[in-house]
Amino acid sequence: MTKDVSYRKLERQDGMVAGVCGGLGAFFGINPIWFRILFLILLLPGGLPGLLPYVLLWIILPKAKPEFFDPIKTG
Fold this sequence. Notes:
By secondary structure, the chain is an all-alpha fold. The chain has four helices and no strands.
């Protein structure tokens, strides 16, 4: 008996600046535009509430590895 376990991995990807919002969107399964809007709103009261978490995530999150075309798997 085998278990079908899928894991989601939080990585930077599909980025306009650093890929943080794209990675968060992929991880949570929602459009990254919502995270971009959230970080922009957090930047309004002086910058630090939005900039600090963004920069920390940029440093902490690993960059997504590119997926290469594998003709054997696609048939």
